[in-house]
Amino acid sequence: DRLVLAGYCCDRGYLLSVHDGCSVKQRQKNIYLTDCDATKGSSGGPVFVKKDGQHYLAAIMSSHVPVITRDGLSILNAVVSIIHERHNLEEIKKCE
Predict the structure, then answer these.
(1) Which of 44, 59, 67, 82 is least surrounded by Cβ atoms within 10 Å, i.e. has the fewest?
(2) How many angstroms separate the Cα of 46 from the Cα of each of 14, 78, 85?
(3) pLDDT digits (tens, 9 = 90+) for 35-58
């Protein structure tokens, strides 16, 4: 799934910022680690799943998470799913 993060980041708090095309890198229950661009102030912002030209609210931006990878330390952004099974797009569509 392609993700879209929207929010009012601290570096441009007066202007809505959008990262269209980020993705889930790891999953732990209803927490997803993404490569969405986020800074201070992004917390609480909506994360949408983009499918067939439609956007479905799927999660809320939570926090930055340091992750050790083979290449060293990376910072991913944690989002919390608003439904139990985010991969079930039919369940997400019921939120319309």
Answers:
(1) 44
(2) 17, 12, 17
(3) 888 777 778 888 888 888 888 888
